[in-house]
Amino acid sequence: MSEFTQLLVFLVALPPSYLLLRALYRITFHPLCAFPGPKLRAISHLPHAYYGSQGIQAVAVRDLHRQYGEVVRIAPDLLSFMTPSSWKDIHGHAASKKFPKFGYFKVRADAQPLLTAEDKDYPRQRAALSHGFSDRAIAGQEWTLKKQIDVFIKKLGEKASAHEVTNMSEWFSWLTFDIVGEFTLSMKFGCVESGENHPWVSTLVKWFRATSFAANANAFGIFAPFVMLFANIKDLMGIKIHLQRSAEKVRERLEQGEVSGKADIWSYVLRAQGDKSLTMGEMEVNAAALLVAATAPVSDTLSGAVYLLAKNRDKLVKLREEVDGLAKSEEDITMVLTGKMTYLMAVINESLRCYTPTPGGGRRKAPPEGATVSGYFVPGGTIVCVYQLPAFTLPNNFALPETFLPERWLPADHPDRPNATLSDKQEVFQPFSVGPKACLGKGMALAEIKFILARLVWHFDFELVDNGFAFEKQRAFLFRERPALNVQLAARNR
Ligand code: HEM
């Protein structure tokens, strides 16, 4: 064999030999080799990335937890936990400083939104934005919200009178988009009024897909840019368009400065001065991120709740009894009143459990010295996460997990609380995450969902027209990719 041939054989054999040796190392000597999970997942990131590209990553992780238990090695350096204590150990106040976010896609190179801000930028941004999400700020939104729900109810009333099938998934998208348009940009999108998709709404779906793809690509380390070559170009363009539009609208809004009587987020943000303020780039990119973060999970929750209530009419009747019992007239339905409706809150919790809008889990990287998560020592550099779908829907944590049972969220001494659910591990149910980087919009989201659902139930009866919304047929990229939720609405006789 000539020297050239020898070199060629060496070069051809090198990559497969490297991959083989690396695979052997990953299943025998790797610091995570003692954690349970399939061998293929221990060897390669590809299975996890593949399920991600199909929109069924969380479902696949749930199946692994079902087989392997409370902690699973779902990729060579990635552990998924589903225990209550893992939330605190990974995301809690003390842990949060040690476990940085990992794999989040930075949609803009020169300015980050809160979700991907790092180091000193993070607390500065969180402080500047949080005033806009305070209880006072939420209460200040009530009037605008009420007006928007009035239009929503009026339009649905027309559909009911005409006996038309209504795709509630679509209507909830339009309503939440209208609401967040006013809140983040003081803009009237008018989706509900026109009963049509605003062109902007469809670019958001592209954002979910592209950012979800990028999060999976990031797991491939130095090969991530190569993997990104396979990203859908239309989805990536969707991000660009959305960023551009948001930037234009924020500039328009900021030119007006603080406007009296206007209670959008900028009224609060603009009060932060000097080194506490946000840069123009940060305001632009935060507006873009909020348009996504504040619409998709809220419309997911509302759609999930309507689907589950329509399938479980006894729960719908019970909810209606509570709303009717507390509100003597429609005008009585306020944020304060809906805050007192315990069964309504139980329905929302149970909808979030059965149909969590974020079925995956934010990834975090263990500190160099390693850390203990849920009693397991996790070596430094390991990526850890709590996937919400398995944590909320497996029998390890909830009795009768497949059953829509709002009563499980009633107090333990409530006569309607089923005994079987007294052993539920409720602390694992954290749809908004926990700790200092948990959802900033939790209070606003819950206030909005309660208000909308109470008004809907007050006005309408609804029945499913088909089962196209069945959860098991759906895909998720960060948030749910919702199919049509076709219902027949009927105005209630009063
Ligand atoms: C049912 C509705 C909602 C759910 C289930 C939800 C869930 C979450 C979760 C799980 C996170 C943590 C993400 C991570 O660590 O990777 C998060 C973060 C965030 N959410 Fe929500 N969210 C909802 C509604 C909203 C709304 C209405 C807003 C704004 C009006 C909002 C704004 C944010 C922001 C700004 C963050 C980033 C927080 C940070 O990194 O400090 N969310 N949300």
From TrEMBL:
Which residues are listed for heme binding in this entry?
Answer: 439
Q: Which UniProt keywords apply?
A: Heme, Iron, Metal-binding, Monooxygenase, Oxidoreductase
> GO MF terms on file?
heme binding; iron ion binding; monooxygenase activity; oxidoreductase activity, acting on paired donors, with incorporation or reduction of molecular oxygen
**Pfam family name, one:** p450
Please indicate which superkingdom the organism of origin belongs to: Eukaryota
Its cofactor is: heme
What PANTHER family does the record point to? CYTOCHROME P450, CYTOCHROME P450 MONOOXYGENASE ASQL-RELATED
Family per record: Belongs to the cytochrome P450 family.
Protein name as it appears in the record: Cytochrome P450 4F3 omega-hydroxylase
The protein's organism comes out as Melanomma pulvis-pyrius CBS 109.77
